[in-house]
Write a sequence for this structure.
């Protein structure tokens, strides 16, 4: 697992997801703008890739839930599907695989990205009152996400309902 937020050890994005989005390969020329610019603004001249962030948060939330609840599993199939769709969209936006590699390598050091991610993660934890010492809080959150058919639910499987 690749940590995105050191102060929240359970919350991570899988290394496979990050590598697949980054499309591997040597670092080339970074796109115009900085990684801070691409997530939500085009201030630095680069394209807005906010839609990637909008997938990272539910993906990591689903991983956090499934890691802490024995009856909720993570859907690798859905993660793979999401990654394929995102890579296609990123390429359509004119971002090369080398540029994506440079962007993702810079996220850990990007203060604005980390601030935004930390705030969203904290809000999610508070919303569901998640407590790592009480796995039932994760199971309840996962079941509620599944019942609501939310963006997080896309990556969850209720193993109690599997035949």
């Amino acid at each position: 697992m690749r940590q995105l937020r050191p102060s929240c050890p359970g919350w991570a994005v899988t290394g496979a997801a990050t590598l697949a989005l980054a499309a591997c390969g040597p670092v080339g020329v970074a796109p115009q703008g900085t990684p801070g610019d691409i997530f939500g603004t085009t201030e630095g001249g680069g394209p807005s890739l906010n839609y990637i962030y909008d997938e990272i948060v539910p993906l990591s939330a689903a991983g956090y839930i499934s890691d802490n609840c024995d009856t909720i599993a993570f859907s690798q199939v859905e993660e793979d599907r999401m990654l394929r769709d995102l890579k296609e969209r990123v390429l359509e936006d004119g971002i090369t695989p080398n540029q994506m590699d440079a962007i993702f390598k810079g996220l850990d050091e990007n203060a604005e990205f980390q601030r935004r991610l930390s705030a969203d993660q904290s809000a999610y934890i508070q919303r569901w009152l998640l407590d790592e010492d009480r796995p039932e809080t994760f199971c309840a959150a996962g079941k509620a996400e599944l019942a609501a058919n939310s963006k997080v639910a896309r990556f969850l499987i209720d193993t109690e309902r599997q035949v």
User: Anything to note?
Assistant: Residues 50-68 form the longest helix (19 residues). Residues 1-37 have pLDDT under 50 and may be disordered. Residues 2-158 form one domain.
